[in-house]
Amino acid sequence: MSLLRESTTMTPSFGGPPFVLIRTARLLLEPITEGHADEMFRVLADPSLYHYMPSEIPTSLVWLRERYRVLSRGLSPDASQLWLNWIVSRMEDRRAIGYVQATVPPSLDHALMGWTVGRATQGHGYARESVRAICSHLMRNGIAEVRATIDVRNAPSISVAESVGFVREATAMSEDVLDGIRGTDHHYVLRSLPS
To answer: What is the mean pLDDT of residues 67-78?
Structure first.
């Protein structure tokens, strides 16, 4: 059953189930569950991951389990948005290495995407492979464009976005304040995946 059909505020026009298991050549992208918290706590406890994003460092395993329990519903608390989150694991050892998330508004015309891959596994193309797979899934199911907002200093994420085919459309002051400083963000959009 599609998560959209469970929502009272969204219309069921997403082309298929939004929350499915996705496989790539090297990766397994699993819809998030509370059970993923145990392995992801290790990945997300690295403070260096948060230089350019306003996410909270998990304060405890209990906190992360609760966060993942909420995210596993696939809907914002007011049921006005789809919150689609996948845990990225390597096929070779089933080790969780990061996540990809997509927020879809009631219009279902776009998704706002974010991703994180742990420091120990960066530089192997895992972020690019997982982002491309999720973009493909979303677009096959009727999402016309995927957007990403990236801090201008976050060279690795900019590289991932551009290698997948995202195009920079604007640069503006960030809505987020990190370490007391309001930064600058690039705004990217992807309307089709390159072959």
So the answer is: 93
